[in-house]
Amino acid sequence: MACENETAIVLREAGQKVTPQRVHILCEVRHSGVHITASRLIEELRTSHPFIDASTVYRTLASAADLGLVYETDMGSGESEFEWVGKDRHHHLICRTCGDVTSLDNSYLDGVATLLYEEAGFQADLGHFAIFGVCKSCQTKA
Amino acid sequence: MACENETAIVLREAGQKVTPQRVHILCEVRHSGVHITASRLIEELRTSHPFIDASTVYRTLASAADLGLVYETDMGSGESEFEWVGKDRHHHLICRTCGDVTSLDNSYLDGVATLLYEEAGFQADLGHFAIFGVCKSCQTKA
DNA sequence: GTCGCAAATGCAAGTCGTTGCAGTTGCAGC
DNA sequence: GCTGCAACTGCAACGACTTGCATTTGCGAC
User: Fold this and answer.
1) Could you tell me which of A18, A33, A100, A6 has the C-alpha nearest to residue A63?
2) What CATH number is given to the structural domain containing B105?
3) Which of A116, B24, B77, B106 could form a disulfide with B89 if both were Cys (CB 3.0 to 4.6 A apart)?
């Protein structure tokens, strides 16, 4: 698949060695759609590439997150979820009651980031944010 | 200490049973000052009350967080930090470079919460938030 | 093509936090 | 003061994730 070549280029540009393990892991993240937990990723890789160790997956994801290739978000389940960094920066609204995850446009928090920089000189990294609360339908049920 | 009686009252009002373990754990959180990680809390309790099991500490903290008695915040270290809920709601600015933690007034994010409720019907729980980024002094150093 | 080295990998062992379960305990009702 | 029960506790086992270390491998230099 073309994705593998592309992933290899991204890796090389980031100054990382291009190993089949890394390419497979990152391709899996790209193809997984929205979010994928580390454990589910390991499970899926176990079927397609059984020789890849869990520690390799964790290390690859951590270094990819450092380089900004993937986002790592704590979705409140205790497990981190990973997502390939696409063009559109967005956040997530996570319902504490039903666990539903909704995407949220970046614009909501842009104002906060600007304000923080102007008033505190703090360059906030609001690239990918998880906001907990109670969604509309759970509120009406209650 | 008076704190123990007070903690017991808070627990009873919250509909929880008042056990010595819970009182000790929550007192420790109250006295620890700003933030304390679960593992450090367990370590401190080990010296003062060696008979309290780690699982009891985690369960007590989780139920106290549910009841809004303590805040649970992911400070990016992988470990959750706990803080006794005082009168002032506030957030934290955490520098990715030097690890410094600064408190941030609640007002910055109040606007976001209002906007989310009006536009998405989502009741955001912004009681205690950790925002990552780069602080002023680290920016000037770079 | 092959050499050398830093980076990446796989394995095993360890830590951290959670969960199931049987026994214990706080406390409301009598 | 006694009783019953739900909530709480401690233990042990488990899953998730990390770390140390010896081995392997990608890749730039020759």
Assistant:
1) A18
2) 3.30.1490.190
3) B106
